[in-house]
Amino acid sequence: MATTADFRNGMCLEFNGKLYTIVQFQHVKPGKGGAFVRTKMRNLETGKILENTFTAGVKINQVRIERRPYQFLYKDDLGYHFMHQETYEQISLNEALVDNADLLKEGQNVEMVVHAEEENVLSCELPPFVEMEITYTEPGLKGDTASSTALKQATVETGATINVPLFVNTGDRIKIDTRNREYSERVK
């Protein structure tokens, strides 16, 4: 058991029978009345954000989770197959548990978030940035912009479509931010 004084970003807790991780929290001590804690929590099953207010000092059930290194092997009709990088144990997951599944390529390292007591996988997270090659994009024409932030659609080697600046061409390697699926930079 933990209290609201133990809240930290990334902490996993059980709330209303579901598992949540704390995205953001703020302790508030108003001039009148008791203190409280405002939180934004992400549901580990659905990924939805829930805003909730806890009374200061209330007890909550903290859940122990572990992050384990895995490598993506391949995808087939049974799901996505991964191998633990230290024990070489292989597991398969359905697409709902894999964040940004269309940005996964064979041999890529990922982190599995595992419920420590029950040993079941809660989610599969890609690294913050991945490098991909552009397989198709329309050529950008000079003078084609009304502002400096003009974007166009580009298809990368895994089949995902990403918005990129006009100067990016087919064959270029780019870095993609997996947290918001946005273009970050061109890779030399």
Reading side by side through the largest sheet, how are the strands ordered?
A: 1-6-2-3-4-5
CATH top level label of the largest domain = Mainly Beta
Q: Tally the helices: what do you get?
A: 0
Net shape: flat
Which architecture of the largest domain would the CATH scheme give at its second level? Roll
- Mean pLDDT across every amino acid position: 90
Largest sheet: 6 strands, antiparallel
Radius of gyration based on Cα positions: 21 Å
In the predicted model, the low-confidence regions spanning at least 5 consecutive residues are none
Number of strands: 16
Note the gap between the termini: 50 Å
CATH fold label of the largest domain: SH3 type barrels
Structural class: mainly beta
User: In percent terms, what proportion of residues is strand?
Assistant: over 45%
Instruction: Tell me the number of structural domains.
Output: 3
Report helical residue fraction. Answer: under 10%
Structure characterization notes:
This protein is mainly beta. The protein folds into three domains: 61 residues, SH3 type barrels (Roll), CATH 2.30.30; 61 residues, Nucleic acid-binding proteins (OB fold (Dihydrolipoamide Acetyltransferase, E2P)); 59 residues, Beta Barrel (OB fold (Dihydrolipoamide Acetyltransferase, E2P)), CATH 2.40.50. The strands form three sheets. The protein has a six-stranded antiparallel sheet, with no helix packed on it. β8 and β9 form a beta hairpin. The termini are far apart.
